[in-house]
Design a protein that fits this description.
- The chain is an alpha/beta fold and about 270 residues long.
- The protein has 2 domains: about 100 residues, Translation factors (Elongation Factor Tu (Ef-tu), domain 3), CATH 2.40.30.10; about 110 residues, Nucleotide-binding domain of ferredoxin-NADP reductase (FNR) module (Rossmann fold, 3-Layer(aba) Sandwich).
- The chain contains 6 helices and 16 strands.
- A 7-stranded antiparallel sheet has the order 4-3-7-1-2-6-5. A 7-stranded mixed sheet has the order 11-10-9-8-12-13-16, sandwiched between helices.
- β12, α5 and β13 form a beta-alpha-beta unit.
Length: about 270
């Protein structure tokens, strides 16, 4: 659906990273963990295209005024990297934005009771909070958050409040273990005593590739949420296609990230060709 949304809050949570809360129509309350929105960051033609953002949270917002009725909201996390996100960071409460969503295919919740391992890096943590909020209702959940430095580790307190056990790794050692997040994941997998697990991941391609290999070597179900250069968000432009596992010169196997994803079973994708 397309709708006009009002900004409820927009603030910096870490150097370069921002968190925005916006109003939503009633139907938005059915957004699935892993889905995304397409946001027009300017009322003009520059930037021309919408920008995709994972849905960090969704629920009911209670205004500070006593007796005021609650209304639906959703939140996004974003990193200022270009003109579009720079414009977003300059917006204030009560400003209006044009939104398309929720879009795409979200995460499958897996088998209740089995251990759920969530792996995220930077703004890749964005779609994982809503996922964790649903998973903790039926399963033990552990989060593995990684980044170059402590500035890239976002909203850990929110995950802990859900009852999620959190592990942090930074490449410079400024927070948590020193190293990449997949090393922390491997330590957990090596100590789980044959406990059944499922992996959910979102973040940079290199991290997703490594997590996919780890899952494949241990025959663990793994779902990944891909980031794509989306122009339309609905599968019309085919600008965000990614190679499938069966792609060859004779077989052009491609998957549309916005329409068929952004969440995929990691075994569906051709990692060597992405």
């Amino acid at each position: 659906m397309q709708f006009t949304s009002m900004i409820l809050s927009n603030f910096q949570i870490s150097p370069g990273y921002w968190r925005m809360r916006l109003t939503a129509p009633r139907e938005f309350g059915h957004a699935e963990p892993g889905q995304f929105i397409m946001l027009r960051t300017s009322s003009g033609i520059d930037p021309l295209l919408r920008r995709p953002f994972g849905i960090f949270d969704a629920g009911l917002h209670s205004p500070p005024q006593t007796g005021a009725a609650s209304h639906p909201f959703f939140e996004i996390l974003y990193k200022v990297v270009g003109k579009g996100t720079s414009l977003l960071s300059s917006l204030h409460e009560n400003d209006l934005l044009d939104v398309l969503g929720p879009l795409g295919k979200g995460f499958d919740m897996g088998i209740p009771g089995e251990e759920k391992l969530i792996v995220g890096g930077g703004v890749g943590l964005a779609p994982l909070y809503l996922l964790a909020r649903e998973l903790v209702k039926h399963s033990p959940v552990r989060l593995f958050a990684g980044g170059r430095s402590r500035d890239d580790i976002l909203c850990i307190t929110e995950f802990e409040r859900l009852g999620v056990e959190c592990y942090v790794a930074t490449e410079d050692g400024s927070l948590g273990e020193c190293g990449v997040v997949t090393e922390a994941l491997l330590k957990r997998l090596d100590s789980r005593n044959r406990q059944k697990s499922a992996i959910f991941a979102c973040g940079p391609h290199g991290m997703l590739d490594a997590v996919s290999k780890i899952a494949s070597e241990r025959s663990i179900p793994c779902q990944v949420s891909l980031e794509g250069y989306m122009a339309c968000g609905v599968g019309a432009c085919l600008g965000c296609v990614t190679p499938g596992k069966n792609r060859t010169a004779e077989n052009p196997d491609f998957r549309c990230v916005c329409a068929e994803g952004p969440v995929f079973d990691s075994r569906e994708l051709g990692w060597g060709n992405i």
